[in-house]
Amino acid sequence: MILVLAVFLLCGSFIGFPVLAHAADVDLIKTANQMNDLCKSGQYEGCIKLADQMLAKGLLIMEAYRNKSACYFAMGRTTEALDTLAAQLKLNPNNQLALYNAACASAKLGENHQAINYLKRLLSLNINDKLDIRQDSDFNAIRQTPEFQSLTGISVRVGGELLDLDVPPLISAGRTMVPMRAIFEALGAEVSWDGNARTVTARKDGTTIVLTIDKKLSQINGTNKNLDAAPVLKDGRTLVPVRFISEALGAEVQWDAENQLVEILTAKPKGIGSDYETVKQELDTLITVSVVDGLWPEPYNLYATEGMTLIIARDKKALDLMNSLEETLRAKYMYETTYDNFALVTGCEIVKMKFVYDGKVYYSGDMYYQKEGEGINLTYYFKGLPINVVKQYKGVLDYKDFYQLPTEEQTTSQISD
Prior knowledge:
The protein is of the alpha+beta class. It has helices at 7-15, 23-40, 44-57, 61-74, 78-91, 96-108, 112-125, 130-135, 146-152, 180-186, 242-248, 276-284, 316-324, 327-340, and strands at residues 155-158, 161-162, 170-172, 175-179, 190-194, 199-204, 207-212, 217-220, 223-226, 232-234, 237-241, 251-256, 261-266, 287-293, 306-313, 350-357, 360-367, 379-386, 390-393, 398-401. The protein has three domains: 7-153, Alpha Horseshoe (Serine Threonine Protein Phosphatase 5, Tetratricopeptide repeat), CATH 1.25.40; 161-266, Copper Amine Oxidase, Chain A, domain 1; 276-409, no CATH class.
């Protein structure tokens, strides 16, 4: 189980939080440190009592839940730890640490299906947790299950969406083979199967691909193409070489060896040559900008010299406007919006920029202040990459859900900064 101690509890003793002007705020810092010290020193009942007092006042919500659940774990009261984490996840369903620890608790309690569901939600937010999950002894009870093996093996993400595959990918002749239908459909292709000829046909945007089981020869629009690895049948599913198929359909394939992730990205929208200043003026009325400073307590994995700018679309129209811009102008808009708010992350060497709609990132890139916006390369997730979008509250050392709007409310709700 990972129980990460909040960064600000350490920072407070070094930097003194000079920007906090109110005595009440300083008391909150002291209370947070006291709660953390009680937990670390084994005074679990005292920590739980203090956490409950904070929760009753609505203060330090995430920090109180984190310490309280950690104490229950340390005391061997796993059921109460899970109940505490479940209450936390009601407030913030995408809290990564809570999801991780809830998965640990569920596995220890024999709630295998629940543990797998928590892990799926976690990995959709942060694939980097896969390494820790593989090594964590708390998951020994479910380690040999097909579901766990599939989650911690080779993963495939298409346009930001982590695919839930019923047959795990495999390596054949040095090539990653993936379930054909899942990949084709995720890329928007129509798929048909001829059992007699043992051929698979995929069609998308005027491109037709024909593959034959156990044969390296394929066809793209009638032209023969040789594959590095032949399609195979496994557990009733056809597995095909992912790179060849994806690139034939106009997608880019990246391989993350550390996390065993196949990342499939489609081409960015071409844009329609919209007038930049006109689009910018309208876009500015349809977004909320949330700036995160890595020096302060927050739910993102940032170093003290890193920042993040979340450009949050309040309406689908904002995403459509963003897509209407040419690629260089999208980067320009994200850079200018980040630059306008740079004073909130002064001292950050890098600012991670994200364009968010409906709790998902559609454009992501990095801003380096000294480069003045030049050479910014945006990654485009056409399905959207899930992100835990929360607002940072520097004054009370807490954060709460910031952007969890139901679909039907997105065009009418106003998000106040």
